[in-house]
Amino acid sequence: MNRPARRRLTAAILTVVTVTAGASACSSGAGSADTKGAGSGTYTIWDPYPQFDKTSAWAKLLDKCGTEAGVKIKRTAFDTSDLTNKTLLAAQQDNSPDVLIVDNPVVSTLAEAGVLTTTDDNKLDTSKVNPNLLAAGQSGGKTYGTPIGANTLALYYNKAVLKDAGVDIASVKDWKSLTAALAKVKNAGKKGITFSAIGTEEGSFQFLPWFWGSGAQLAALDSDQAVSALSLWKNWLDKGYAPNSVINNTQTTSWQEFASGDYAFAENGTWQLAGAEKAGFEYGVIPVPGTSGGDAAAPTGGEFVTIPVQGDTGRYATSQKLVSCLTNSQNLLDTDTTLSYVAPTAEVQDKQVAANPDLKPWVDAVQAAKGRTSDDLGTKYPKISEQMWKAVQSALSGSASPNDALGSAQSAVK
Amino acid sequence: MKHTTQLPDRRPVQSRNGAATAAPPPAPARARRRPASQQWAAWAFLAPVTLYLALFYAYPLYRNIDLSLRNYTVRSFVQGDAPFTGLENYQTVLDDPVFAPALLHTVVFTAVCLVFQYVIGLALAVFFHQHFRLSATLRALFLVPWLLPLIVSASTWSWMLNSDSGVVNAALHAVGIDPVNWLTSPSWSLTSVIIANIWIGVPFNLVVLHSGLQSIPASLYEAAALDGANAWQRFWRITFPLLRPVSAITLLLGLVYTLKVFDIIWIMTKGGPADSSTTFATWSYQLGFGNLLPAFGPGAAVGNLLVVAALVFGLVYLRVQRKQYAS
């Protein structure tokens, strides 16, 4: 009878049904992820290694550890800058992964948020780990995970450039001799040093060896030592020893500058070792020198394996098995070799050096390194770090003197 | 199987017949039943869009307002027990030393970008309106900046403007001008992102204004030519006034797009150095995500200020438009 009207109605209802079905399909999709009772046998692992796909050794290792623990592994890889917020959101929805591998300065933030279990709860054994590395995952006397590997910063140098400029690398022992070496390189028509002073965490990470090497402490950004460290960088830029582009350089772009072969020095990390082999010139590595000799403490990089809080505490036992498997000596050796990291335990470090003597300066650097959130700074570190990179940027770009920049940074932290 | 395959064959015939023969008689019945079913249909039609608006616009907006009114720490974000603090986050944002420069940069960035994008876009639109040979091809080429993903164009700009190895400084050097620290000097960084954003925004203005030009009747130009108007007079007396409604919507859309520009600035300068190219959009991101310890509350507050600014200009536009209709 009134067919057109009815047909319209049917069409409308159909549309509504499809839309709502679509919506509920989405929501049930999201919902199924958190239905993981103890018996379900699927354990989720989040890591910040999107460069490793399903066929990689890392993914296979995860599956192998899953099989040993008698469960299936569902792995998701995130970009490291996304992972903190993704984890916080998941925890808000009570949908945390069973095992979370996360950048070490984030651990104290997540611990503060109540997202992570302590080693008291999850029974992880951290006794073999180097204490200076473990400190980054400790806050308020509790430990929130175990490092899977560590990296840190040192100075790469280009042997040919130094030779042409008549610099003996053995003479570079402190800031004065380093600056003198840079002057010689510049006079020889080459470029001095490149690093990353970008306005992000990377910038703070790169500034820290000089900051700590001056004897400054993170609790007082405006100390005389801190000003001397920033003045050192500022002076290099003014004299043309370092390019002005460092203000916008990430560690990757800074490395590309060094790989061009024009630069004598580059401050960069363990993870560039593989790239250094491919650069096509002879290179060497020295630790970042302190202001009057000795090695400066560099910040530790690298990730921690943690076990987030679950509604169902029965899951911790299996999660603990998974983490122990991932961090047992043999697997640590394999993983840290693929990641080009230094292992967090002395035993595995020895094995790494035995297999590749070039790693020796890096192992030394890691042993001298310091966690950014150590000294019980915990969640104060992110605020300090933000002010620090801002001060570095202000001073290097010339909008404030090192003294004023660090002064206002310190007052902004309080 | 057989049944279903037969159906389509029969159906069109039936429905055609049904519509033709049955339509006149049941008219009274329909009149009585119609309101109920029609209302249902109306609701059903309304439902998808309402659902969509509620899910993807109203709820996020509500969440953002809620975020900006509570004191969120990472802990209370996860536990969901953030205490209500009223306008405290807004107070924090207003008292922040970054606020004044960020406001100034946002205003300068938006105003300068809008003016240049509009003027260049209009000039090009008038130029291409003359239908010379290859004008369509050239116009298509001008669309390239619009089609490129922002990450590509922003990265390309930051390579070109690099202090040491950028092609722009190399060109300046060739003509004997000292290199400029485009992205790393506090006095140049805002200019650099403005230049990049103008380049990206011109095609949009060109396309909209060009289509606006096509709706102006050619007879007006002929009449003006007969009256002895020169090209300049034809532009100011005919093109510009008749283009006013299109110009208004172009500028409003441009304003909203420019206010929220984030990617270009973030990729090129991260809002730095020393906050010299920070706008509200990058500041909001910096607060909420740019730090290891996110400050969701103040970040959301800055975001809301941006929404309000865009809303105010939207209302101004509606007002102006209504006046135009009334007159």
Describe the protein:
- The complex is a heterodimer of chains A (414) and B (327).
- Chain A is built from 18 helices and eleven strands.
- With 414 residues, chain A is α/β, with parallel strands linked by helices.
- A five-stranded mixed beta sheet of chain A has the order 2-1-3-11-6. Chain A has a four-stranded mixed beta sheet with strand order 8-9-7-10. A two-stranded antiparallel sheet of chain A has the order 4-5.
- The longest helix of chain A is centred in the first third of the chain and has 32 residues, at 3-34.
- The radius of gyration of chain A is 25 Å and the shape is globular.
- The termini of chain A are far apart.
- Chain B has one domain (97-326): MetI-like fold, CATH 1.10.3720.
- Chain B contains 16 helices and no strands.
Compose a concise summary of this entry:
The complex is a heterodimer of chains A (414) and B (327). Chain A has 414 residues and is α/β, with parallel strands linked by helices. Chain A has helices spanning 3-34, 57-69, 80-92, 104-112, 119-122, 131-134, 159-165, 175-187, 201-213, 224-239, 251-259, 273-278, 316-326, 329-339, 346-355, 360-368, 380-397, 402-413; strands spanning 42-47, 72-77, 99-103, 138-139, 142-143, 146-147, 153-158, 191-194, 263-269, 283-286, 303-306.
